[in-house]
């Protein structure tokens, strides 16, 4: 069975006739969509199906997919109930409203000049395009909101623009607009988290072989490429190493450590850095000016501080604040909406900490917790303030990193009392507290314990400090007691006179020193040994031979002399045996 249809249309709202032709069992059957009993003035009821759908052979799965439901439009009443756009009865309010475009999409960078905070990446890409030293694979690594996708699209525009590759392309031309909107046939954006299998990589390898449709290159941009499986990475290796000349690969990821080293070695890697708070604040003020919003400088700084280096986060926060505040945004609005803590309160907490005022510090933490502030963010600000003080003590030329000048000078005066190691110890205490607060349910308790420990560490007395104080005091005392050094007398010395040499007196014999009295054994409780000690012969010490002079060779040691009879019978001396026998009261033999 085969089906063919003929459709004839004459203008908008004109009558339309359908003449499907069928070949059923070798016979040609022609039938009009309008049954014989109906005419154009009296159409068939809408509930009645056309004749060809009532045939048993054409029901169910026998109907081709492109004709399934064809009867719904075969009824001319369908066209009468449809209002065309040029009809007077149409209402423009029925059209879908144009959706609001958020700041992150509306102010997305379109050219290399619009990329903020990534000068090292922009300069390298510019020079590569100018010098025609284009690599076949690029890898953009960085945290969220730093411009990975925007930079990839700008690079694709520069490669496929009219007359490209060139860096001074027009972002409003058709090719660039298609790339920016993600509907270009030559620039394929792939989500690595959803297409992370081998089958998707095989499809990519098949599409690599086809030439670009409009531009000079066919560009494959894979976002979150670290989500690909190991098998998918291995399937991509050969194509990535030796792609066709018209193919370029651009990868983006936030976790480069999860990518195989074999993939990293085949790409040029660009590390996009977190954007500074000053750059974010300036860009937010520019957006507010373009949108007619009154944004305070302090509010822009607070948003940039809370964005943590991400421009997209800052733009989303500004969008939310506009919906909350309207046309005027202050710093208090930012603190209330996002739970941030002002710089003044952070400085006051640091001052209480350095002054070892525990009640004031705990009271400030209590007020912030009751106000719904994020204590983890407050702790991070406190650590940053202490770090700035530590750097200022080591480098006096360092600034306060956004802290007002009056508060910064007061903090420097309070920190001058403590050495650098004390402030470093307080930072260590709060770093441990920050790690515990991430997984704790009662974050306020751990924060207060950290404050108490840090205050105690600032006030504890160390042995090194005591030694230094004693040394300093001894030096002061010695300096006070030491007499002043008199300058030498430069008077002319008298001429020496010859004196007669006195005759030497006869040398008298040097009296021998009296030997110290021997201690009595009775003092030690051994009264019987006194007589034995007196009766024992005195043993004179052996004469000590003088050592040979260093310029003479020492004589070789003589052969051992056999012991004499006295030495051999020393242990059997009868005198000693008799003395010990008298002392012990029994016969003692040696």
Describe the structure.
The structure is a single chain. This protein has 590 residues and is an alpha/beta fold. It folds into 4 domains: 2-80, no CATH class; 103-273, P-loop containing nucleotide triphosphate hydrolases (Rossmann fold); 281-329, no CATH class; 341-467, Zinc Finger, Delta Prime, domain 3 (Up-down Bundle). Helices cover 43% and strands 8% of the residues. It contains 23 helices and 12 strands. The protein has helices spanning 71-74, 77-80, 103-106, 119-130, 148-160, 174-181, 198-208, 230-241, 261-264, 277-291, 297-307, 311-325, 331-338, 343-354, 358-370, 375-394, 405-415, 420-437, 443-459, 463-481, 529-535, 565-568, 574-584; strands spanning 2-4, 7-8, 17-18, 21-24, 27-30, 137-141, 187-191, 218-223, 247-253, 268-271, 294-295, 328-329. The strands form 4 sheets. Strands 7-8-9-6-10 form a 5-stranded parallel beta sheet, covered by helices on one side. Strand 2 and strand 3 form a beta hairpin. The longest helix is centred in the middle third of the chain and has 20 residues, at 375-394. The radius of gyration is 50 Å and the shape is extended. The termini are far apart. Residues 1-41, 44-95 and 521-525 have low confidence and may be disordered.
């Amino acid at each position: 069975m085969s089906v063919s249809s003929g459709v004839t249309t004459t203008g908008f709202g004109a009558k339309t006739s359908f003449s499907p032709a069928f070949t059923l069992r070798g016979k040609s059957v022609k039938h009009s969509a309008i049954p014989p009993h109906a005419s154009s003035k009296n159409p068939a009821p809408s509930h009645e199906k056309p004749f060809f759908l009532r045939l048993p052979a054409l029901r169910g799965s026998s109907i081709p997919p492109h004709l399934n439901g064809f009867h719904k439009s075969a009824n001319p009443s369908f066209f009468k109930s449809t209002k065309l756009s040029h009809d007077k009865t149409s209402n423009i309010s029925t059209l879908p409203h144009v959706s609001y475009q958020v700041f992150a999409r509306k102010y997305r960078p379109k050219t290399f000049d619009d990329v903020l905070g990534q000068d090292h990446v922009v300069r390298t890409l510019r020079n590569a395009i100018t010098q025609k030293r284009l690599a076949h694979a690029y890898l953009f690594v960085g945290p969220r909101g730093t411009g990975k996708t925007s930079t990839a699209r700008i690079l694709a525009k520069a490669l496929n623009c009219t007359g490209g590759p060139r860096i001074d392309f027009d972002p409003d031309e058709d090719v660039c607009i298609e790339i920016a909107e993600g509907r270009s046939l030559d620039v394929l954006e792939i989500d690595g988290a959803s297409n992370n299998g081998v089958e998707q990589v095989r499809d990519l390898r098949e599409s690599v072989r086809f030439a670009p449709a409009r531009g000079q290159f066919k560009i494959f941009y894979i976002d979150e490429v670290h989500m690909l499986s190991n098998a998918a990475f291995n399937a991509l290796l050969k194509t990535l190493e030796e792609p066709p000349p018209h193919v370029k690969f651009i990868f983006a990821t936030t976790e480069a450590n999860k990518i195989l080293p074999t993939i990293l070695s085949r790409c040029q890697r660009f590390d996009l850095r977190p954007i500074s708070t000053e750059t974010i604040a300036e860009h937010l003020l520019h957006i507010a000016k373009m949108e007619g919003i009154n944004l305070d400088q302090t509010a822009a700084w607070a948003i940039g501080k809370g964005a943590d280096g991400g421009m997209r986060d800052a733009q989303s926060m500004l969008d939310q604040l506009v919906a909350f505040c309207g046309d005027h945004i202050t710093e208090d609005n930012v603190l209330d909406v996002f739970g941030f803590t002002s710089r003044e309160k952070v400085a006051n907490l640091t001052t209480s900490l350095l002054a070892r005022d525990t009640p004031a510090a705990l009271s400030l933490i209590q007020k912030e917790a009751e106000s719904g502030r994020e204590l983890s963010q407050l702790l991070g600000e406190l650590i940053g303030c202490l770090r700035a003080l530590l750097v200022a003590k080591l480098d006096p030329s360092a600034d306060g990193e956004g802290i007002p000048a009056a508060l910064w000078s007061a903090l420097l005066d309070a920190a001058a009392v403590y050495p650098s190691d004390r402030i470093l110890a307080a930072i260590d205490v709060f770093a441990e507290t920050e790690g515990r607060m991430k997984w704790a349910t009662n974050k306020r308790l751990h924060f207060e314990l950290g404050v108490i420990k840090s205050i105690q560490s600032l006030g504890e007395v160390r042995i090194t400090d005591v030694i230094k104080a004693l040394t300093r005091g001894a030096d002061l005392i010695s300096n006070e007691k030491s007499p002043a050094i008199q300058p030498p007398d430069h008077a002319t010395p008298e001429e020496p006179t010859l004196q007669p040499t006195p005759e030497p007196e006869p040398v008298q014999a040097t009296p021998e020193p009296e030997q110290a009295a021997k201690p009595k054994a009775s003092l030690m409780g051994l009264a019987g040994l006194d007589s034995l000690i007196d009766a024992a012969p005195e043993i004179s010490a052996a004469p000590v031979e003088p050592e040979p002079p260093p310029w003479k060779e020492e004589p070789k040691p003589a052969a051992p002399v056999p012991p004499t009879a006295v030495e051999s019978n020393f242990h059997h001396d009868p005198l000693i045996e008799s003395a010990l026998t008298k002392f012990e009261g029994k016969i003692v033999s040696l």
